Amino acid sequence: MPPTLLLCFAHPDDESFSCAGTVMKCVEAGARAVLVTATLGERGKLGDPAVCSVEELPVYRERELREAVRILGISELHLLGYRDRELVDAPPDAVRRALVTVIRCERPSVVFTFDPNGFNVHPDHVAISRFTSDAIAAAADPRWIPEAGTPYRVPRLLWTPVPAPWEPGAFDAVTPGNDFVIDIAAWRARKAAALRAHRSQHLSIERYFFNQPELDRILSSEAWRQAWGPALPSRPATDIFDGM
């Protein structure tokens, strides 16, 4: 049975910023990818010039997300329906139930999410990291939400690393937390397309990607920190299934 990847993120575009190349590389090798997006980024930017009104932004961003999902080859999209910048206040029981249900149904080999500091300390990023870790633990325990299916223990959880892709040392072997450095050079054009699918957020995407002097380097690698999982034969590993 082919492995499944589960991506748990807060907003549309998080998936394209963080793991677009890794996902495409694995999907082309036969894996299946599933995405959970907790909010529709209703309080995000509108673009300059604006691509839509404030009221239209959630619908517009969902459309952008679905286009990125198509580009990345993601098989299933789960929208949790929470409001942007309010995820931190979401009822833990409800989020746990939703994520445990997805985990037990999809039985992923690898789960991706933000590190506990939320990559850039965004409260929604911090919240989805916490909720994901909580749900992974609960999914393995038959006492939690028995109606959600057979318990399942996730083999590996990966966090976004400390250096952002555009920062010095982002993909260096000696940088602490770079437990995986994945070569995605063959997929960089499609990663760029997935990023550009989020048209309303072009100001941030241009700032952190397309206006960077080392754009090719930024689009050619992705790094991950192992929160838990099987021991790695070496660090950084070059395949997210190493040691499994």
Give the tags.
244 residues; alpha/beta; Rossmann fold; seven-stranded mixed β-sheet
Quick overview of this protein structure:
By secondary structure, the chain is of the alpha/beta class. It has helices spanning 14-28, 57-72, 92-106, 118-121, 123-139, 188-197, 202-210, 215-220; strands spanning 4-9, 32-39, 76-82, 110-113, 156-159, 180-183, 221-228. Strands 3-2-1-4-5-7-6 form a seven-stranded mixed sheet, sandwiched between helices.
Protein model, in words:
- This protein has 244 residues and is of the alpha/beta class.
- It has one domain (4-228): LmbE-like (Rossmann fold, 3-Layer(aba) Sandwich).
- 38% of the residues lie in helices and 17% in strands.
- It has eight helices and seven strands.
- A seven-stranded mixed β-sheet has the order 3-2-1-4-5-7-6, with helices on both faces.
- Strand 2, helix 2 and strand 3 (76-82) form a beta-alpha-beta unit.
- It is globular and about 50 Å long.
- The two termini are 14 Å apart.
- The model has no long low-confidence stretch (mean pLDDT 96).
Q: Overall 3D geometry?
A: globular
The first-to-last residue Cα distance is 14 Å
Count of DSSP-assigned helices: 8
Average pLDDT number: 96
CATH topology: Rossmann fold
Described by its quaternary structure, the protein is single chain
Number of strands: 7
**Major sheet, described briefly?**
7 strands, mixed
Q: How helical, in percent, are the residues?
A: 25-40%
Listing every helix as H and every strand as E from the N terminus to the C terminus, the arrangement reads EHEHEHEHHEEHHHE
Rg, nearest Å: 17 Å
CATH architecture: 3-Layer(aba) Sandwich
Major sheet: arrangement of strands: 3-2-1-4-5-7-6
CATH first level: which class?
Alpha Beta
